[in-house]
Amino acid sequence: MKSKEKINCSIGILTLNCGDTLRRCLESLKDFGEIIICDGNSTDNTLEIAKEYGAKIIKQYDSEKPNLRCVKDKASVRQKNMNAAIYDWYFFMDADDILPPETIGEIEQIVSNDSEFLVYKMPTKIIINGKIINYASWYPAYQIRLFKRSINAKFKGKVHDHIVFDKTIYKAGIMKNYYYFIWPDERIKNFWNYQKIYTKREADVFEINSWNTFLYWGIYHRLKIIAGFLIRMPLSYIRYGFKGRLPIRFELLVFAQHFYLLYLLILKRINIYYEQN
Q1: Are 17 and 133 in a shared domain?
Q2: What secondary structure letter does DSSP report for 255?
Q3: Residue ranges of E strands in the chain
Q4: 123 contacts 140 by C-beta, under 8 angstroms
């Protein structure tokens, strides 16, 4: 029986002690022509699992120090991961997530045919305790994860990394199928502490040296997000009810997280002002 041809697309994954979830992730990616693991010198069985699945392994940093976490330069590590790919089509994901068969099938269709678009954004959903969360206030939360490297795409963002490219030349297509974020038990149990850590990192790298930047991105943009959340959350409950949606405590904590970031940015700007005067 003739074996199925691999999908001509490289998958990039960052890892650090992901032994508990990596096997599940790689098992879902067997149809892809290349998997690249960019590792932060894991000390568990992450690399053994990666080798078992034939993944290409590269180091996040030129160092032998164990357990290196890319907390403030994630985009540069993502870029290194992408630069090691052999295929033009590239998809990046996290080691605790999976790609379902229907999403893989859609990617194969895009890659195998002369696609109208060279970059695609896709809707996302969360999985908690094995259950798909169908409704949340920020859904469909589109993210760009599939694109051709030849569009000269670059990763930006020191904490929340994302792809940037010339949008005047390349328009993004929209995928129908989802990317699923699988929330680990630790995150669910300690959700607020988890969110605070990321919020503090975001505030630390947020550049607000000028008043214009602070007022627009630190205040106006953040208040705009909060206002949108205030509108969407009750409308979402009215439209979809409580069944199959994100528990309200998580919704409220995400809402509180935006206020917390606003507070940290104001505090940071005040400190900068006093340091300069």
Answers
A1: yes
A2: H
A3: 7-15, 32-39, 56-59, 89-94, 119-122, 124-128, 131-133, 143-148, 154-156, 162-164, 172-174, 179-183
A4: yes
Indicate whether 105 belongs to any domain.
yes
Rounded distance between C-alpha atoms, residue 150 and residue 153, angstroms: 7
Per-residue pLDDT of 123-146, as tens digits, reads 999 999 999 999 999 999 999 999
Six-digit token pair at 225?
């997000």
Contact indicator for 11, 93 with CB cutoff of 8 Å: yes
68 and 198 part of one domain: no
pLDDT for the residue numbered 276: 86
Looking at the fold, whether 177 and 196 belong to one and the same domain comes out as no
Burial 120-146 (b: 16+ CB within 10 A, else e): bbbebbbebeeeebebbbbbeeebbbb
Range of the domain at 231: 190-276
Could you tell me if 18 and 153 lie in one domain?
yes
CB 201 within 8 A of CB 118: no
Q: Are residues 109 and 225 in the same domain?
A: no
Alpha-carbon span 39 to 257, nearest angstrom: 29
CA distance between the termini of the chain: 76
Q: What angle do CA 123, 144, 41 make, to 5 degrees?
A: 110
pLDDT in tens, 23-36: 999 999 999 999 99
39: which 2 tokens? 């590792």
Return d(Cα 107, Cα 177) in angstroms, integer.
9
- Rounded CA gap, 255 and 46, in Å? 34
Query: Checking DSSP bridges between strand 131-133 and strand 143-148, what pairing results, if any?
Result: unpaired
Q: Give the closest residue to 194 by CA, choosing from 247, 265, 260.
A: 260
